[in-house]
C-alpha cells in the first residue's frame, strides 16, 4: 500500500465531441470566426449557443462572453454598479470574482463562510444591514449551493441586487430551481475544468431586458445587437446603444461550436461526475480524521471536485508535507489555507489590491486545513478507491 502510486492526470479533460470538432473545422475552413461574420440570412454559432443555453436554463436572455470573469464584470456594470459602490461577496472564492468587482469599479466587501463552504447567512445579513452595499455577488464556490431561498429573501429585505457566479454550478439546482435563476443576473464559465469546456469562455443570463441590452453593448456589439440569439427587441436598445461603452469581450464562433456540441451531454455528465464524487466521498468518510461538508437535501450539485479537512493536521508544515507526499504518489491536492497562493488557489487575504484584509476568523479557521481535489470525467469509479487509499495511508503516516 505504501508504495502504490496513482498514474492518471488530475487535469486531463475528455475530448471534444466529434460533432463539435467537425463543426469547428468547417468554421476554420470558412474563415468566419468572428461572431458577426455571417452571410445573408445565416445565424452565427455564437447566436445559436445563446438561444440554446437560454432554453436549457429557462432564462429569457443569454450573452456569450470571452470568459466567465468578463461576464461577471459586465454583469455588475449592466445591473447598475457605479464606481465606488460596495459589493458583497463570500470570502471563499477564486480570484476572478473580486477581480471582476474591482474591474467594474466596485469595492469588494467579504462575507464569512460556514463549515459547509457556503456563505454564512448571519454574517451576510449583518453586512447587508451595516453597509451601503447594493449588490451581492454570490460565488457558488466549488459547487456548494447555500440556502438560495433564504438568500433571495435577504436580498429582497435589504434591497440588494443578487448576481450569481455559477462557474461551478452549471447543471445544479436548489429545490429543483436551476442555479443561475435566482438573481437578476447569472454568469457561467466554460473555461477548461468547468462543466462544458471551450478552454476559455463564459455565458451571462438574465430575464431583465435592459440589463441584457447593456451587457450586449458592453460586450462590443458594434450596433449589431440584432444578430444575437437571445436578446431583447430593437426598441430596448434605442438609448442604451448610445449610452453604453464597448469593452470588447465577445465569444467567437469557433468556441461556440465546441460548446454547442457539449451542452446536450451536460445532464448525463453531471450524473457521471456525481458517481465519482460519491465514490470519493465514501472513501474519505472511512478515514476517521477527515471532515467532509454536509450537503443539504435541497441541493442537487455537480461533483466535479471535492473538499475535505484533515482534522489531525493543523500546523501549516504538516499540511504542506501531506500535500507534497500525496503529490509524489500521483494524488494532486490543493490547499486553500496556504498563505502563499499556488496556481488557481488563493486565500482572500492574498488579494492585497483590495486593501487591508478584513477580520474573518471563521473563514480562516475553515480554510486553514481545507484541501481540494479535482474530479475529472477521465477518471473511473474504481480510481476513487485508489486515490482515497493513498490519502488514508498518508494521513496515517503524518
Which properties best describe this structure?
398 residues, alpha/beta, Aspartate Aminotransferase, domain 2, Aspartate Aminotransferase, domain 1, 7-stranded mixed sheet, 4-stranded antiparallel sheet, 13 helices, 38% helix, 14% strand
Architecture blueprint of SSEs:
Blueprint: H1 18-30, H2 45-57, E1 61-65, H3 68-78, E2 86-90, H4 96-103, E3 107-111, H5 121-130, E4 135-139, H6 148-157, E5 161-165, E6 173-174, E7 177-178, E8 185-189, E9 202-206, H7 209-219, H8 237-243, H9 253-262, H10 266-285, E10 290-292, E11 299-300, E12 305-310, H11 316-328, E13 334-335, H12 361-367, E14 371-374, H13 381-397
Parallel strand pairs: 2-3, 2-4, 4-5, 5-8
Antiparallel strand pairs: 1-9, 6-7, 6-11, 8-9, 10-12, 12-14, 13-14
Helix pairs in contact: 1-9, 2-9, 3-4, 3-7, 10-13
What does this structure look like?
With 398 residues, the chain is of the alpha/beta class. It has 2 domains: 18-264, Aspartate Aminotransferase, domain 2; 266-397, Alpha-Beta Complex (Aspartate Aminotransferase, domain 1). The protein has 13 helices and 14 strands. The protein has helices spanning 18-30, 45-57, 68-78, 96-103, 121-130, 148-157, 209-219, 237-243, 253-262, 266-285, 316-328, 361-367, 381-397, and strands spanning 61-65, 86-90, 107-111, 135-139, 161-165, 173-174, 177-178, 185-189, 202-206, 290-292, 299-300, 305-310, 334-335, 371-374. The strands form 3 sheets. It has a 7-stranded mixed beta sheet, with helices on both faces. Strands 10-12-14-13 form a 4-stranded antiparallel beta sheet, with helices on one face. A hairpin with a 2-residue loop joins strand 6 and strand 7 (177-178). Helix 2 (45-57) packs parallel to helix 9, helix 3 packs across helix 7 and helix 10 runs parallel beside helix 13 (381-397). The chain is globular. The two termini are 15 Å apart. The mean pLDDT is 96.
Amino acid at each position: 500500500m505504501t508504495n502504490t502510486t496513482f498514474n492518471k492526470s488530475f487535469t486531463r479533460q475528455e475530448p471534444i465531441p466529434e460533432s463539435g470538432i467537425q463543426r469547428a473545422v468547417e468554421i476554420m475552413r470558412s474563415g468566419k470566426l468572428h461572431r458577426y461574420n455571417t452571410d445573408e440570412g445565416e445565424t452565427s454559432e455564437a447566436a445559436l449557443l445563446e438561444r440554446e443555453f437560454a432554453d436549457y436554463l429557462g432564462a429569457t436572455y443569454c450573452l456569450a462572453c470571452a470568459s466567465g470573469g468578463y461576464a461577471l464584470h459586465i454583469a455588475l456594470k449592466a445591473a447598475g454598479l457605479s464606481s465606488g459602490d460596495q459589493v458583497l461577496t463570500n470570502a471563499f472564492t477564486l480570484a476572478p470574482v473580486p477581480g471582476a468587482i474591482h474591474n467594474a469599479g466596485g469595492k469588494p466587501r467579504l462575507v464569512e463562510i460556514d463549515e459547509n463552504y457556503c456563505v454564512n447567512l448571519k454574517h451576510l445579513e449583518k453586512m447587508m444591514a451595516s453597509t451601503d452595499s447594493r449588490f451581492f455577488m454570490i460565488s457558488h464556490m466549488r459547487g456548494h449551493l447555500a440556502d438560495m431561498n433564504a438568500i433571495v429573501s435577504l436580498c429582497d429585505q435589504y434591497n440588494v441586487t443578487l448576481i450569481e457566479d455559477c462557474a461551478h454550478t452549471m447543471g445544479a439546482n436548489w429545490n429543483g430551481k436551476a442555479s443561475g435563476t435566482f438573481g437578476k443576473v447569472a454568469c457561467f464559465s466554460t473555461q477548461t475544468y468547468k462543466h462544458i469546456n471551450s478552454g476559455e469562455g463564459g455565458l451571462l443570463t438574465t430575464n431583465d431586458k435592459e440589463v441584457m441590452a447593456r451587457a450586449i453593448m458592453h460586450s462590443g456589439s458594434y450596433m449589431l445587437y440584432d444578430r444575437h440569439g437571445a436578446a431583447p427587441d430593437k426598441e430596448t436598445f434605442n438609448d442604451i446603444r448610445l449610452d453604453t461603452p464597448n469593452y470588447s469581450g465577445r465569444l467567437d464562433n469557433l468556441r461556440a461550436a465546441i460548446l454547442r456540441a457539449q451542452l446536450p451531454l451536460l445532464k448525463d455528465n453531471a450524473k457521471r461526475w456525481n458517481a465519482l464524487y460519491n465514490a470519493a466521498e465514501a472513501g474519505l468518510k472511512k478515514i476517521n480524521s477527515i471532515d467532509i461538508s454536509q450537503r443539504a437535501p435541497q441541493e442537487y450539485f455537480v461533483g466535479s471536485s471535492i473538499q475535505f479537512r484533515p482534522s489531525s493536521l493543523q500546523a501549516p508544515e504538516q499540511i504542506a508535507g501531506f500535500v507534497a507526499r500525496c503529490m509524489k504518489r500521483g494524488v494532486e491536492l490543493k490547499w486553500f489555507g496556504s498563505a502563499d497562493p499556488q496556481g488557481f488557489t488563493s486565500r482572500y487575504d492574498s488579494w492585497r489590491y483590495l486593501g487591508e484584509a478584513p477580520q474573518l476568523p471563521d473563514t480562516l479557521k475553515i480554510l486553514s486545513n481545507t484541501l481540494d481535489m479535482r474530479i475529472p470525467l477521465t477518471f473511473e469509479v474504481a480510481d476513487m478507491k485508489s486515490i482515497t487509499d493513498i490519502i488514508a495511508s498518508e494521513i496515517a503516516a503524518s
